[in-house]
Specification:
The protein is mainly alpha-helical. It has two domains: 3-154, Hypothetical protein af1432; 166-242. It is 64% helix and 0% strand. It has 13 helices and no strands. It has helices spanning 3-18, 27-51, 56-68, 72-80, 91-101, 104-107, 110-122, 134-154, 166-173, 188-194, 203-211, 214-221, 228-242. The protein starts with a helix and ends in a 5-residue tail after the last helix.
C-alpha cells in the first residue's frame, strides 16, 4: 500500500466517524471510545508488522487494517445501541459492508483490498476459516493479536467479585481458549480474557501484554479459589515458554 493511499484512508476515517457523533449521552462516549481504539490498533498493527520485518508497503497495509478493523462498530452502536454482536449484528461483516458502501475497495489495489476485507471480516470471529493465501492469513493474525492487546486496555478488570466457574477454570488449565458465550459470573470474563494468551499468534504480542501489565492485572483480579495457584503457574509457564520465542 502506498503512503498516499494510507493517508487518504485516515482522512476518510475521520470524516466517516464524525457522521456518527451524537448528542445522545449514551452513544457519543461509545463512538469516541471506538474511534480511539481504532487509532491505537492502527499504530499497534504497524509496530507488530515492523517487528516482523515486513516491508513498507505491507506495514502500511497492516496499519490500514488496524484503522478499519472496527469500522462496523459505529453503525452497530448507533442502530442497536450495543456492542454485543449476539444481540445485534456481526460487526466484522458489517464493517466490510460499510467499507464497500464507502467505495474503499475502489481506492485500493485489488490484492490490498482482498487482504483488508478478509482481515476486517474475520478479526472478531472465534476462528478464522482455513486460508491457503499466506498473505491473507498473516494480516488476519496481525489484527487479531493487536485488537486483543488494546481491548485489555479498554476493558480493565474489576476487583474480585462472584468467583469463576469451576468448569472454565478446568478448561483454562487444559490450555483451551475460552469464549464470551461461556461466561456465567463477573469473574469469568477475566478468565476468558486471560485465555487469549492461548490464541495469540506472535511472541511480540505476548511480550507487550506482559510489559503493559495486562496479564498481572487480570491475575490479581481473579478471586481466591482452589484453582488459582495452578492458574498462576500455568500462566508463568506459558510466558516462560513463549514470550522469548522469535517471531
Amino acid at each position: 500500500m502506498e503512503t498516499a493511499i494510507l493517508e487518504s484512508l485516515y482522512h476518510w476515517f475521520g470524516d466517516y466517524v464524525q457522521t456518527f457523533y451524537s448528542d445522545d449521552a449514551e452513544i457519543q462516549p461509545k463512538v469516541l471510545e471506538k474511534e480511539k481504539h481504532s487509532l491505537i490498533v492502527a499504530g499497534l498493527n504497524r509496530d507488530l508488522a515492523r517487528s516482523l520485518g515486513l516491508d513498507a508497503a505491507e506495514t502500511q497495509l497492516a496499519e490500514a487494517i488496524g484503522l478499519c478493523h472496527d469500522v462496523g462498530r459505529f453503525r452497530q452502536v448507533t442502530v442497536y445501541r450495543t456492542f454485543r454482536d449476539r444481540d445485534s449484528v456481526d460487526h466484522g461483516r458489517l464493517g466490510v459492508e460499510e467499507l464497500l458502501a464507502a467505495g474503499i475497495d475502489g481506492r485500493l489495489e485489488p490484492r490490498d483490498w482482498e487482504a483488508l476485507a478478509f482481515a476486517v471480516r474475520w478479526h472478531n470471529a472465534a476462528a478464522v476459516p482455513g486460508q491457503p493465501d499466506a498473505r491473507l492469513a498473516l494480516h488476519s493474525k496481525l489484527i487479531r493479536d493487536t485488537d486483543k492487546l488494546d481491548i485489555c486496555r479498554v476493558l480493565p478488570p474489576s476487583p474480585p467479585a462472584d468467583g469463576c466457574s469451576p468448569g472454565l477454570e478446568n478448561e483454562f488449565l487444559a490450555g483451551n481458549l475460552l469464549y464470551y458465550e461461556d461466561i456465567k459470573t463477573t469473574d469469568d470474563r477475566k478468565l476468558v480474557m486471560l485465555s487469549w494468551l492461548f490464541d495469540v499468534n506472535f511472541p511480540w504480542t505476548i511480550r507487550e501484554l506482559a510489559a503493559r501489565g495486562h496479564i498481572d492485572r487480570l491475575l490479581d483480579a481473579l478471586p481466591p479459589s482452589a484453582a488459582l495457584p495452578a492458574i498462576r503457574r500455568k500462566v508463568a509457564l506459558f510466558l516462560a515458554e513463549n514470550a522469548s520465542r522469535q517471531d
